[in-house]
Amino acid sequence: MYFAEMFFYYVIVTCLVLTVVVFVHEMGHYLMARRFGVRIEAFSIGFGREIFGVTDKRGMRWKICLFPLGGFVVMHGEMPPFVNAQAQFTQAYEDGALWTRPNGQRSLIALGGPLANFICAFLIMTGVFLFHGKEIASPMINVIEIGAGADHSGILVGDELVRVNHVDVPESFEDIKELTKNSGAALDVIVRRGLEVLDFNISLSVMKDEGDFGEDTSRKVMGIILGNGLWNLEAINSVDGIPTGGDKDVARSLIISRLGKDMVVNFGLVKKEGDEPPKDYRLRLDPKNNQALFDPEHVNYGSLFYGDFEKTRTKALGVFDSSIESIRFSWMAIRKTCGVLYQMVVGKKDTGDLGGVVKIGEMAGGTMRQADILGYSIFFRLLAILSVNIGFLNLLPLPMLDGGHLMFNGYEAVRGKPPTPKVKAYMMAGSVGFVFAFMILVNFRDILEIFS
């Protein structure tokens, strides 16, 4: 039963997620090509041997292939003939050959796939914000950093924020960051503790941070953690001064014995130079929210959960506000993807910071299995992010990607003629080799990470 469940979540769900994203992408190319009269010969989800297919009245083959980890649309006459192209133009145009269409139409057909992915992500996130709502920062203080300003001031785990610098508790974590950013060396904070309302003056400390593009930044912090979250047990170095030696079973045993009580956890895993050193945190874990620690088959067996998901609040948004939040969400996803790619080019990150099919499966299956805690909205967020990233990455100027076709179209617009078929063929072959080598490297690292 356990293996059947794992197969469903980490294989079936992954295939469904990829199928949806790929179908949307290829449907964008298909609809745009049909708009300009290009004849479609085949619409395929997956690669390899066909396992199911039908041919419609136009003669186009709709098919599902053995390996559903991609897809393609076959358009009639994608490449012009090597000889006598002009003599064949009229007949080829009537037959719906792609090469006979004007440069602008061919550019729009190439752009159709990424555009469909962006529209899909926009609609998904608009639906999430419209029907589920926008998460609001919980005012409950769940974790306190030992030695930080909040700890020295007398703030306790379980206190509830009421006002920050004479402003009611903001609705988002970003708003709280803005309050601390624009304040001086301290914040005036009012909290509710049971029936008491208490006033504290919290000194702020500066924490080094890194921007999306690797730039050195910093931000002011109070030393508190709000909301809900998971901590990996293997990154726990000690519990109440008792070392774990990086052993998850030891950490789990120590945590279980202290559920419902205040404890001090040293947490942090330094993987590379520049990472934040481990720190001591005071927290109190709700036993009912950490039942996964007792179940070896649970997706969160290797993690502790701080916060209280039952107190997670959402704010209902109208159609307009949902659309704006959806655009903002998509832009943040694109910006972070650009940042990772940029840092890889300049040598600040390696391919370990990217994820392939294996990583997608791990995330998709994990979010579906823990949907009882974090909500199905997380799964749809993942689907939207994946759609945005697929659309954006396909715009990269590699010949086998949509961006490569747009690059050739741009060359044709400037020079007045397309590159020769032989040059395009050589560039396509080199691009295919690069992309496949990159995919193998990324997924190989994902597999090694899981087994290690």
Short recap of the structure:
This protein is of the alpha+beta class. It has 12 helices and 18 strands. The strands form 6 sheets. It has a 6-stranded antiparallel β-sheet.
Tell how many strands the DSSP assignment holds: 18
Gross geometry: elongated
| Helical residue percent band | 40-55%
- What is the mean predicted local confidence, pLDDT? 81
Alpha-beta content class? alpha+beta
* Count of individual domains: 2
- Tell me about the largest β-sheet: 6 strands, antiparallel
Unreliable parts: none
Tell me the β content: 15-25%
Enumerate how many helices there are, as a single number.
12
Strand/helix succession: HEEHHEEHEEHEEEEEEEEHEEEEHHHHHH
Radius of gyration: 27 Å
N-to-C span: 25 Å
- Biggest sheet: strand arrangement: 11-4-16-15-13-14
Fold and architecture overview:
The strands form six sheets. A six-stranded antiparallel beta sheet has the order 11-4-16-15-13-14. Strands 6-5-7-8 form a four-stranded antiparallel beta sheet. The two termini are 25 Å apart. The chain has twelve helices and 18 strands. With 452 residues, it is α+β, with helices and mostly antiparallel strands. The relative contact order is 0.12. It is 45% helix and 23% strand. The protein has two domains: 2-132 and 382-451, no CATH class; 136-313, PDZ domain (Pdz3 Domain).
Question: Topology of this structure?
Answer:
Elements: H1 2-35, E1 40-55, E2 61-75, H2 85-94, H3 103-132, E3 134-136, E4 141-145, H4 149-153, E5 160-164, E6 167-168, H5 173-181, E7 186-193, E8 196-203, E9 205-210, E10 216-221, E11 224-226, E12 229-232, E13 236-239, E14 242-243, H6 248-256, E15 262-267, E16 279-284, E17 303-306, E18 313-315, H7 319-345, H8 357-369, H9 371-374, H10 376-393, H11 402-415, H12 421-451
Helix pairs in contact: 1-3, 1-8, 1-10, 3-7, 3-10, 3-11, 7-10, 8-10
